[in-house]
């Protein structure tokens, strides 16, 4: 590192992304990319958007946001699209956590959580998994901290039931509970149905795994309107045009052809 690098980041251990070999001679599993191509509508939508690259993207991703809201039965004001789900997770760490508002997560889980915490100067607690690698719900009941749980958890693949998620959310009314549903479409039950009852619940998902768009970088969060407004404050203070034109168009087309992707998930 250079002598100019900020002292506050000198001990930061950055996240290591999965290796992306160039000579595709392998069945590549390390980052859980879909083996299936994007749908025909996505390819057409991306192609049609190329001529408009001279123009900034819609900062609200209005059409894709409305389509996602309709798909999940929520209001557009309860949805925020981001540059992959990593971005909305980082926004949430920035918006809801600080030196006096720590966060807790499992000791074996998505490796970016401790990086987000360290990057933003947030104290964190890692909660041990049970011997069978499952998350013990009782460890999070009334824990008195913000919480982030990948459900299904990565890399274990084990999922909490919706009732178990609700117990955690309900027992921590003064703290934000983030349920990271990157793999939810592979057999788990989403917690989106709970957001109308719990103002402290944020559900995040991604188009990377179940919708064959890891290279497009599109994620989203669903929560009550007040939480989404908080996250938008962070977004508009960092990267207003965070979702590019081609990705927004691809996302909209993927939502319209959702059954193609859900059928692929069932095959996987």
How would you describe this protein?
The protein is of the alpha/beta class and 268 residues long. The chain contains eight helices and seven strands. Strand 4, helix 5 and strand 5 form a beta-alpha-beta unit. The longest helix is centred in the middle third of the chain and has 13 residues, at 84-96. The protein is globular, with a radius of gyration of 18 Å. It starts with 39 loop residues before the first helix and ends with a helix.
Question: Any descriptors?
Answer:
seven-stranded mixed beta sheet, 12% strand, Aspartate Aminotransferase, domain 2, alpha/beta, 268 residues, single chain
Set out the fold topology.
Layout: H1 40-49, H2 62-72, E1 79-82, H3 84-96, E2 103-106, H4 112-119, E3 124-127, E4 146-150, H5 162-170, E5 177-180, E6 201-206, E7 219-223, H6 225-235, H7 245-256, H8 258-267
Helix pairs in contact: 1-7, 2-7, 3-4, 3-6
Short description:
The chain is of the alpha/beta class and 268 residues long.
The average pLDDT is: 95
Arrangement of strands in the largest sheet: 1-7-6-5-4-2-3
Q: Return the structural class.
A: alpha/beta
Largest sheet: 7 strands, mixed
Low-confidence stretches: none
Give the CATH H-level superfamily: Type I PLP-dependent aspartate aminotransferase-like (Major domain)
Distance between the termini: 42 Å
Query: What is the name of the CATH topology?
Result: Aspartate Aminotransferase, domain 2
């Amino acid at each position: 590192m250079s002598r100019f690098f900020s002292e506050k980041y000198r001990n930061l251990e950055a996240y290591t992304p999965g290796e992306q070999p160039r000579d595709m001679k392998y069945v590549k599993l390390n980052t859980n990319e879909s083996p299936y191509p994007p749908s025909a509508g996505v390819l057409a939508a991306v192609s049609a958007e190329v001529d408009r690259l001279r123009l900034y993207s819609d900062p609200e991703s209005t059409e894709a946001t409305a389509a996602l809201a309709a798909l999940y039965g929520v209001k557009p004001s309860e949805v925020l699209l981001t540059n992959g789900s990593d971005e909305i997770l980082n926004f949430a760490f920035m918006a809801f956590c600080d030196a006096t508002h720590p966060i807790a997560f499992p000791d074996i889980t998505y490796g970016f959580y401790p990086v987000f915490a360290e990057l933003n100067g947030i104290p964190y607690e890692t909660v041990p998994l049970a011997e069978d690698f499952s998350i013990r719900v009782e460890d999070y009941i009334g824990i008195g901290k913000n919480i982030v749980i990948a459900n299904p958890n990565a890399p274990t693949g084990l999922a909490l039931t919706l009732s178990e998620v609700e117990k955690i959310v309900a027992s921590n009314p003064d703290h934000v509970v983030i349920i990271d549903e990157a793999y939810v479409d592979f057999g788990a039950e989403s917690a989106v149905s709970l957001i109308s009852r719990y103002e402290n619940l944020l559900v995040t998902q991604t188009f990377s795994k179940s919708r064959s768009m890891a290279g497009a970088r599109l994620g989203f969060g669903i929560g009550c309107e007040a939480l989404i407004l908080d996250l938008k404050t962070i977004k508009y203070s960092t990267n207003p045009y965070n979702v590019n034109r081609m990705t927004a168009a691809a996302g909209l087309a993927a939502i319209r052809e959702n059954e193609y992707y859900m059928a692929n998930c069932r095959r996987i």
